[in-house]
Every structure is written in C-alpha cells, then in structure tokens.
Write a structure and sequence with these properties.
295 residues, alpha+beta, Beta-lactamase, five-stranded antiparallel β-sheet, 44% helix, 20% strand
Length: 295
C-alpha cells in the first residue's frame, strides 16, 4: 500500500511541474520549481528504499551474518543465535551508545558550535557546516537518522572527547558489556568492537530507559537548512522505518565490519531485539530471523 502511495504522489508531483500557475516573479517560480524537484528526488529515493526493503523481504536464503542474536526482551529468552559471544567491529551501531551518553550528560537544548575539529570525520552533511550553531537535540537526530559522523563528533567534542569516550566505556561496563570497547563516538574506527550478546544488553537499556532514541531512528522527516538557508532533508539510512513492526534501532557499515544491525521489532506483541554482525545483507538476514520467529 505504501509503495502504491509513493508512486501516485511521485506522479502527481511530476505533473505539477508542467502545470502553469499564476504569473508571479521569476524568482518565485524558480523557487517553486526547485522545491518540486527536491520533493520529486526525495520521493524517488523513498521508492528505491522501499523497493530494496521489499526485495530483501522476499529473499529466501541462508543467513549471511557471521554472528547474530535474537532475544525476547519481555522475558530475555533466546530465540535464535550464532556466535553471539564472538567480537566483531560494530561500525555505526556505536552511535547508540554515543546517543545514551549525550542524553545523559548534555542538555538537549544546549547550543553547540561546529568547528574544524568536529567536522573532520567522513560522512558530512551540507546542513552541518563550519560555524553552525546547532542544538544538541538536532545533532543527535542527525547522527541517528542519517548516521552523520560529524554530528556525533560534535557532541563528543562539546563534552570533551576523552571524557565522552570514557563515559561510553564506563556505561558499557555498567551494562555488563564485558566484550565491548569504544574508540570514537561514531563508529568509523574498526577497533570499536562488541558482541551480539553485549549489544542486546545495550538495546535492552535503550528500550527501558531511552525510548526517545528508538523514536528518533524511525523518523524520516528531519530537515535542517544548509549554509545558504536552503532546507535539506536528512535521509533515514536504516530503511526499516517503513515497517510498523520496527520499534527502532541502528544500522552500520564498514569494510572491516561489513553490514551491522542492532534493532528492536514488535513480534506478536513482544519486543524482540535483533543484533546482526558481519553480514553481507543485514536486511535479508533480519527478515530471515523474523520469519523463524513467526513460524
């Protein structure tokens, strides 16, 4: 149903480009055209993401992940697992812990000025630029929705990078994540490692104590202006947000980590945490696990 709706809206917007309205100034007409073209591109990306999701949902293949774990958070019962205690790089799943530290140590309304140091990591958004004054809340959203590395780096630098990392590792110890270590706030460093067992503990803590983090990861309507004042949309990279069953979570990718996932799904009324590490196709793997649970 959503797929059909996107296609209909997409067609309407294309048609709108060719409809002549009242003659106003050339600048206004140009602005309208730019907005329409932007909306069309957004919808095109939405359709592609939905098509990929549907395609992976339909795949019937062996789980490619080297490690995975599915646990019912209602009673902590293990549903499915493989190498759940083995350590792997976690990539941008790191940002879940960074989000916890930010929420527990920085006022969300706090204004943070972006500097050259905070903008060094790869993965910069045009809406996050040198000298920008951004709220901690918006930086958190940028980091969790579009997985912006510089957004998380900015939060870390505001608190003090070493202090921020210390707090991340301290929290890991508090949660009993004995095989987890963090070297940055965004996950670019492949030395950031964890296990599926540890990351389920992290998901459980987020679910019980910071559901706002999960809500942010489902958001696909977050905008910030670029340096010229043009509003730009932050693309949600996890693609699971289309699903009503998706409670929230984070994806990641690094060459050394392959594809990673730490997410929670509503399965028959129960919150099920699924962690996937070192996967060739995390979406297909997640759906394979969910099918096993459903049978």
């Amino acid at each position: 149903m959503k797929r059909k709706s996107f296609i209909i809206i997409f067609s309407i917007l294309i048609a709108a480009c060719f409809v002549s309205g009242p003659k106003t100034s050339l600048a206004l007409e140009q602005t309208k055209k730019e907005k329409l073209l932007q909306q069309i591109e957004i919808l095109r990306q939405e359709i592609l993401a939905l098509q990929a999701l549907v395609s992976n949902m339909q795949l019937r293949q062996e789980i490619s992940a080297s490690s995975y774990l599915a646990i019912n958070l209602s009673d902590n019962s293990v549903i499915s697992e493989k190498n759940a205690g083995k350590s792997y790089p976690m990539a941008s799943v790191t940002k879940l812990m960074a989000a916890i530290v930010a929420l527990e140590n920085i006022d969300r309304s706090q204004t943070i000025t972006l500097t050259e140091e905070t903008l060094k990591p790869l993965g910069r958004s045009p809406s996050l630029f040198l000298g920008l004054n951004a709220s901690a809340e918006n930086l958190l959203k940028a980091g969790l929705i579009q997985s912006s590395n510089d957004a998380m780096e900015s939060l870390a630098y505001f608190l003090g990078k070493e202090k921020f990392l210390t707090l991340m590792n301290q929290k890991a110890k508090e949660l009993g994540m004995a095989n987890t270590i963090f070297y940055d706030a965004h996950g670019l460093n492949p030395a950031n490692r964890s296990t599926a067992q540890d990351l389920v503990k992290l998901l459980s803590y987020v679910y019980k104590n910071h559901p706002e983090i999960l809500n942010i990861t489902k958001n696909n309507d977050f905008w910030l202006p670029d340096s010229a004042g043009k509003p730009l949309k932050f693309k949600n990279l996890n693609n699971f947000y289309f699903l009503a069953e998706f409670i929230g979570g984070k994806t990641g990718y690094l060459l050394e980590a392959k594809q990673t996932l730490a997410a929670i799904f509503n399965v028959k009324g129960n919150p099920v945490a699924i962690v996937i590490l070192y996967s060739n196709n995390r979406q297909a793997d997640a759906f394979s696990i969910l099918r096993k649970i459903g049978n």
